[in-house]
Each structure stands twice: as structure tokens, then as C-alpha cells.
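Handout, section 4.2: multi-component inputs.
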Amino acid sequence: MILVGEKINTSLKGITEAVRSRDREFIARKAVEQAENGAHYIDVNCGTLIDEEVEALPWLVQVVQEAVDKPCCIDSPNPLALSAALRVHKGKPMINSITAEKERYDSIIKLVQEYNAAIVALVMDDEHGMPKDAPTRIKVGVRLIADLVQAGVALDDIYIDPLIQPISTDSNMALVAVDTIRGIREVYPGVHFMCGLSNVSFGLPRRGLLNRTFLVMCMLAGLDGAILDPGNREMMSMIYAAEALLNRDAYLKNYLKAYRSGLLD
Amino acid sequence: MILVGEKINTSLKGITEAVRSRDREFIARKAVEQAENGAHYIDVNCGTLIDEEVEALPWLVQVVQEAVDKPCCIDSPNPLALSAALRVHKGKPMINSITAEKERYDSIIKLVQEYNAAIVALVMDDEHGMPKDAPTRIKVGVRLIADLVQAGVALDDIYIDPLIQPISTDSNMALVAVDTIRGIREVYPGVHFMCGLSNVSFGLPRRGLLNRTFLVMCMLAGLDGAILDPGNREMMSMIYAAEALLNRDAYLKNYLKAYRSGLLD
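Output:
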């Protein structure tokens, strides 16, 4: 499972103030915590600070990479901010995200090519927006993957985001995401999947319970990446258990190691 | 989700003594607890007391049904014990279990017909024993369902047990069970599934974590029944969450009710 630490995001409490005041220590500590808890990438997102995103995003990348030896998942729809952040990133970055919407696709694909980046790709296009049903999402996703591969992106660098929406507004939305993963994986078994989980439980109580139950379903369908808080013990326990059950953990080595390290709840 | 309470089983601590001494109060209390926690059926199993099973099993049925207004899941491979227990059972019983093994099939099917019972059917036959792979289990299961329907059993009364085996001895066993459920459900969408979960985690630490993670996977594949301890809060919380996510809980009514009743962990 490829884990992207989600905690450096100005939509979260404390981060906006830390970015506005360029508090290096606060951001560095968030990066170190997530790396120690097992994050493979550190997500950086300051999209709520529209007026200064182009300066703040590269600052975040530099602070994170001075603190930990990890690549960033550079999270913005803004090509200017992405470009500034990619320029200072060391190693192979992940860009979050591209879509099949023509304008966004054309501006982001150039950055993916220039920086040989891994890319999170949302199953959206101009014709359908955010499709409501799995067959349309699968169609949009399959076409987007074909375009990316055609543009020289390795399948192994593509992370499809099936779009997670709340079951509180449409009770079928968890299944739509699961079916989208399964359907795209049937066509492209080599592609990766990546998403945040918490949207699924928006507006409901006991969100953590819903999020981790949903994660297990997505993993059975083929999800092999997630944007989450790696300090969430219950979620991480369930990931270890799911990998063991899905026969993705040779000799149950990681599960037993996590147990001995006191990580399993 | 159809829940069968598993706690009245002489393989569990305290039950052997209670059955041997015909301690009505102890057994009645176990039945009441499970019914209060949401069990739809109360499993009764005294298979370890081979010398007295034929007397003890009907005694258990009577004690349970005097204590709670629930049907029993009468759990034995012994047709004599089953027959004695069925004779005293009130309402529509569930028999646990039949297989496609000729001798067992022939003796149990008569009881299913005579008592119009629901039947748990294991995907085993004489040729393959307990098949190691999903395609064979699916083949055995599909043939067994066809035979049962041919014998006059309603599809809605058949609960297929996909056979749960430990991932500690064969790391593919969780997936074999999941694929068996999915494969049989594709052929017979109207059939039910029912199994115990705990075998999957045999020999491993944090069994509860593995069991409930596995339950979610099986539910996504189509499992709609389980033999478990309905007093296991973490497992029950996950069932409420999974039903909500699988769009099997109209208006999220059960999930929200469980939350308000303080049942969700």
C-alpha cells in the first residue's frame, strides 16, 4: 500500500497559520511525524491560500524535504503553483492531479513530462464533469489512461482517483467508487489507484468507522494507494490486516512485525 | 445481515459444564443476551459431547426457545441428533449443515424437506473433499444448490457456506472464500451466504481485527449472513458501517439508529 500523508493541508486546523507565518518548525514536525508513521509521500496543499499559493507551495516542498527524505505529493489544480513547486522538488515527485478536462489536461501533462512525475488522475472530463455512475467513470478513466500512456507516461506512474463522494447525499456513492476501481483495473491491471477516503462519510457520525470500512472494500477492489493520516492507528491496523488477507503480505511479515511493534489495535 | 449467535457451543468455555449439568439458567441467559444484541437465530451446538448429543441437542433447543422468541440454527452433522432437535423446535428452523457428500446429503435432505427448514450448505463433496481453490468450490456449490432446488428447497432457504480456512496455513484462503461467494452469487443471485469468520485468523495475533476486516470483504462479495457473537461491539459496528456503504441500509436508518443507541465504536 502506497501511503500519502495528508496532514500538511491548509484546510486543516493550524496549517493555514503556519504557512502564512512561514513557521518552518511546525511544518517540519508534521512531515517528520508522518514519515515516521509510514508515509511514502508527503502531500503538500495550500490551495485555500489563493493569493500566495505560487510562493507558499514551493516553500512547503523545501521545508518538507529538508526535514524528511521523502518525495512530495504536490497537490494543486494550479499549473503555476505546481510548476514553482516542482522546480524546487528533489527526486521523483507526484503531482495531484490531472483530469481529462482539456484545459487542465493540456497544462498539467507538460509538467508531468518535464519532471517525469507520478500523476494522480481524476476520472473527470469536460463532457461529464464528475460522472455519477461507475460505467461513465470507467469510460473516462480508461480513455484518460490511454491518453497519458500515449503522452509517454508509464502505467506504473499513473494513480487513478475514482472520486469519493458522500453516501449521505447519494447512498450508492461508495459502491460507485468500488465498481470504478474494479472496472478500470480489469482493463489496466498495471495501473495504480489513489484516493482520500473521508469524503465518503461527510455529514455522518463515526466517520472513522465508515472511512476504514470503506478502505477495506476499496482495497478488495484493487485500491493500492491512499491519502490519509498515517498516525490514525485504527486505519493503519486495518490496512495491515487487509494486506494480510488479500495475500499482499508475504509470510504475513508486515502484519506480524506491526503486531510486535505494538501498532495493531 | 442475518445474524446467528454462536455462543451456545460446547467448544466454548463454560458451555460443556452447563450442558452436562443441564443448567437451564446459564443457557437461557446466553440465549437472551444474544437475542438482545440482535441475533436472528440462536445456534445450538453440542457436538463435542458425542455420547449424549442426541439427548442434549433437543434439550438446548427447548431451553433456548423457552427463553427467547427466536428460531434456532441447529448445528450438527449427526442426523439422529438433528432429528431429535427438530422434533421439539417451534417455528421454521435452520439446519447447519448439509454438504454434497452423498451419505450426508441423503440423510440431511430428508430432514430439510420434512421440517421445511432453512439449510446451511457447505461447498464440499465426495470427489473433492474441501476444495482448495475457488473455481472448484463454485462448481461444487452451484451443483449443490441445483440439487437442493430440485429437491424442493426454496432458493431463499439456502445459505451457502464458502468454507473459511486460516491464512496462516495458506495465505490465499481469504481470497478463495471471497471469490467463492462472488462466483456462486453470479450464478444464483437469490441465494444466501452464511459462515463463521474466526477460522480465517487461526494461529495469528489480533484475531478480532482480522475477522472483522475479512467480514467487510466477504460482505462486499455478497455475504449476507454470519455466525458470530452479536455482543462483539467492534464487529457489529463494522456490520452497520458496511451495510450503510453497500447501500443495504435505506436512508442509513439502521446506521444512525445504532449510533444514537451508542452501539457504534
